[in-house]
Amino acid sequence: MTDHEKHIKELRSRAMRLPLNPGVYIMHDKTGKIIYIGKAKALKNRVSQYFGSEKNHDDKVRRMVANVDFFEYILTDSEFEALVLECSLIKQHTPKYNILLKDDKGYHYIKVTAGPWPRISEAKQIADDGANYIGPYVSSWATKQSVDEALKIFKLPTCTRKFPQDIGKARPCLNYYIKQCCAPCRGKISESEYNESVEEAIGFLRGGSAQCVRQLTRKMEEASEALEFERAARIRDRLAAIKRMGDRQKVVAARVPEQDVIALAQGAGTSCFEVFRFLNGRLCDRETFLMGETGNPKTARGEFIERYYSMRDRIPPRICLDGAAEGSELLGDWLSQKAGRKVVLSVPQKGEQAKLVEMCRNNAAEQVAQATGRTVHEASALDELGRLLGMEKPPLYIESYDISNLAGSGNVAGMIVFENGRPLKSAYRKFKMKTVIGQDDYASMHEVMERRIREYFDAQGKNISDGFGRLPDLILLDGGQGQVGAVKPVLEAAGLKVPLFGMVKDDKHRTRAIASDGGEIAIHSNRKAFTLVSSIQEEVHRFAIGYHRQTRKKATISSTLTSIEGVGTSRAKALLKHFKTIAAIKNADLEELCAAPGMTKPAAQNVYDYFHAQEEKS
């Protein structure tokens, strides 16, 4: 037993002596620094879990446990008190392995430059530059959205050109041609007309769209009465632009007047929580929190809600989540107490709310995709597949297996790996059956999995954590319930809890469904997951059948050589290894054949005569 294993055993022994009371536990490293703080309804049960079998932990928890030198605890009268104390201690100590959020909710402003041809933009702080600043506003997202809307509606420039210096010096940019800029650079708009547009844009930003619409409608009517039809038409176009902008915002509107929507996307070493905040039925703010690995999604959601609403004064009456959160009832009570009214946590399954959650999740997946170098389609497909199969988190590392033979001969298997939604060809493996004779796909799949699991445990003894030393997040077999039934006992006997499914084809050899030991799961309605599974099934079939053809070709070549007198199986293999191809053996002279490993002069002469005799006959 190593020193680390002895230490973990001592920590578990101490944890088993803890009381079954609610409280807070505090993990320290060798320097005494606090690295994790958690709460528990029963301290003994929760803390002892950390020091049990590593197979029950995700990577984040394993890393934390590996750094624990000692722990302490504080008893509380209730689990609710433990939650309040936990929040307070995490704020105070900011432990490394807790989810920590950086609160960048500073103030933001709308800046209107001074002088002729003023510009409107978003600013993070007030500068001493003579500009006029409108604000402050709390949400940077809402401020930027408002400025973008105003610039598009009133066709104000967003380029870096300076006016009047750059008027007439260059052609207008693309925004002019798509009717999003009045293009002062053309010299076709007067300074007074431009300033009027700026004033109207400021009015829009200060008073909102409803007040702006009333003012513009009045101006349009006055222009019409004064027979200023061009000006009236210009104002009409602005009113139409405001309406179009409002229609676009309805896409992200909700019937619930005030609520938050929270979704989690996980990638390889990177996770993202996305928060959409709705007020008066409209999306009023959006926040993105990119962080490292968050581990178990249920636990992560619970921790995130604690941290996030510890930083926020406004707590809505409804919070929609994309999945279950650990301790949701307790969190609901805590949030209700903070808000002074009832707060409901929900996981919507259908309707408008489910669509809002899906949109929020897609945005989180986009952030993860950009951070990890994946496409948003890959991130979304893995997330969709994980949810479809009832997995706690997306399967980032997938192994797939297929058997290939010809009427029972040349029985082989191929294993492919998809990591982060892409083929990882360096991890592909080939298997030639050792115990199965004849055509028996179930027995062959059983043998392959036994050998793969054996390799995994051998690698653990050598501290190898990649290749066969790494367990997949998901195993997909080319086949149905029969293949799943043949492999499942192997995983159970080894004590491994790896999700296992089959990939079922239709009569045209196209992916039709995913098989489990309890039946089939249709995947056609889940387009991204369907495309991913189809790609995996096609790739594993291609790899397995390619290996089968390769072994058959070698067997044919080997049989050609063994038909020569004096060349047995071993000598035929040695010749092929040395010369690589039959063509090279055929073109070799007698001296080169004699010099080959394992060859004798008589055998070399026989090989030479065999091929040259064939040449003479031809």
From TrEMBL:
<keyword id="KW-0267">Excision nuclease</keyword>
<dbReference type="Pfam" id="PF08459">
    <property type="entry name" value="UvrC_RNaseH_dom"/>
</dbReference>
<dbReference type="InterPro" id="IPR047296">
    <property type="entry name" value="GIY-YIG_UvrC_Cho"/>
</dbReference>
<keyword id="KW-0963">Cytoplasm</keyword>
<keyword id="KW-0228">DNA excision</keyword>
<dbReference type="Pfam" id="PF02151">
    <property type="entry name" value="UVR"/>
</dbReference>
<dbReference type="InterPro" id="IPR038476">
    <property type="entry name" value="UvrC_RNase_H_dom_sf"/>
</dbReference>
<keyword id="KW-0234">DNA repair</keyword>
<dbReference type="InterPro" id="IPR000305">
    <property type="entry name" value="GIY-YIG_endonuc"/>
</dbReference>
<dbReference type="InterPro" id="IPR010994">
    <property type="entry name" value="RuvA_2-like"/>
</dbReference>
<dbReference type="Pfam" id="PF14520">
    <property type="entry name" value="HHH_5"/>
</dbReference>
<comment type="similarity">
    <text>Belongs to the UvrC family.</text>
</comment>
<feature type="domain" description="UvrC family homology region profile">
    <location>
        <begin position="261"/>
        <end position="491"/>
    </location>
</feature>
<dbReference type="Pfam" id="PF01541">
    <property type="entry name" value="GIY-YIG"/>
</dbReference>
<dbReference type="InterPro" id="IPR001162">
    <property type="entry name" value="UvrC_RNase_H_dom"/>
</dbReference>
<feature type="domain" description="GIY-YIG">
    <location>
        <begin position="20"/>
        <end position="99"/>
    </location>
</feature>
<dbReference type="Pfam" id="PF22920">
    <property type="entry name" value="UvrC_RNaseH"/>
</dbReference>
<comment type="subunit">
    <text>Interacts with UvrB in an incision complex.</text>
</comment>
<dbReference type="InterPro" id="IPR050066">
    <property type="entry name" value="UvrABC_protein_C"/>
</dbReference>
<keyword id="KW-0742">SOS response</keyword>
<comment type="function">
    <text>The UvrABC repair system catalyzes the recognition and processing of DNA lesions. UvrC both incises the 5' and 3' sides of the lesion. The N-terminal half is responsible for the 3' incision and the C-terminal half is responsible for the 5' incision.</text>
</comment>
<dbReference type="InterPro" id="IPR036876">
    <property type="entry name" value="UVR_dom_sf"/>
</dbReference>
<dbReference type="InterPro" id="IPR001943">
    <property type="entry name" value="UVR_dom"/>
</dbReference>
<feature type="domain" description="UVR">
    <location>
        <begin position="210"/>
        <end position="245"/>
    </location>
</feature>
<dbReference type="InterPro" id="IPR004791">
    <property type="entry name" value="UvrC"/>
</dbReference>
<keyword id="KW-0227">DNA damage</keyword>
<protein>
    <recommendedName>
        <fullName>UvrABC system protein C</fullName>
    </recommendedName>
</protein>
<dbReference type="InterPro" id="IPR035901">
    <property type="entry name" value="GIY-YIG_endonuc_sf"/>
</dbReference>
